[in-house]
Prior knowledge:
Layout (H helix, E strand, L loop, with lengths): L1 E2 L2 E2 L21 H14 L3 H16 L16 H4 L7
Antiparallel strand pairs: 1-2
Amino acid sequence: MQHGGKIDKRVAKTKKAKDKRSYTITLSARDEKMLLRYCAANKISQKVAIKRILNTYLAETLEPLPQDAANQLDLFAPKQMNIFDVNA
Length: 88
């Protein structure tokens, strides 16, 4: 494109495809009022409020994942890795 004698060299960037999932929840009238009050008090949208509430709930209730165990079988012990030593 040309604008006033200048050549515009813009390259269209492609957006990465994100793995998005959509869920549908049903709320009672009372729960919906509570959600709307929460959103108004914190000045956030309903989607952000639900994500925040879920993240907080899951962080508090889920146990932390177990750490990876150390090399329990000693597969790479120096004694076993020395394949050319006949006396081992």
